[in-house]
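Notes to self, Acetyltransferase GNAT family:
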Amino acid sequence: MSIKSSVKEHFTSNPLKDHLEGSSLKSHWDYFFQNESGNEISQEFNELSFRKFTRQDLDECALLFKKVFSDDPWYDEWVSWEQSRKYLKELVENPVFEGFVMGGDSKIVAVCLGHQRSWWRGKEFFVDELFVENERQGNGIGGATVNLLFKVLREEGYTRVILLTNKGIPAETFYLKNGFYNNENRTVMVKEL
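result:
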């Protein structure tokens, strides 16, 4: 079997569905390559809704951010809610900020915060932070959030989505699986002070 065939088989099958008679479980293909209607998200995650970030979301997002990035695989040292809130507040105060949340029952479970960049190729969206509640990771919510983000950005005239992530961690695999690619012509340069 070719690699291409293996990948397609992986995305179009769902081993659990085969074992559960009458199951309505979706395959990976259904999660990652939904049509443009957006109805699939309401069917699969009917308790969740995707919407624009509001200033009232800041505190809850800061709590979730601290929890997610203090844990595996990042183990960042966000020592307090105030520290993570200050960081996110700085992102939100950017004059070209755009943010989105996925949540339900008054609880946010996925967040995407970024900003618009005007580029010669058109309007770009730069993802500053994208995170999903620890317990919900690996259940399709991240992919659904990204698909809905792409849909909204296309409708708003964006031409590209750009982000940075660490190599060799599940986030890199997640982004590659969701249509991002590594730009071989770019490098990230850092100088410690």
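- The helical segments are 3-12, 15-19, 28-32, 39-44, 58-69, 81-92, 141-155, 170-177.
- Residues 1-8, 14-44 have pLDDT under 50 and may be disordered.
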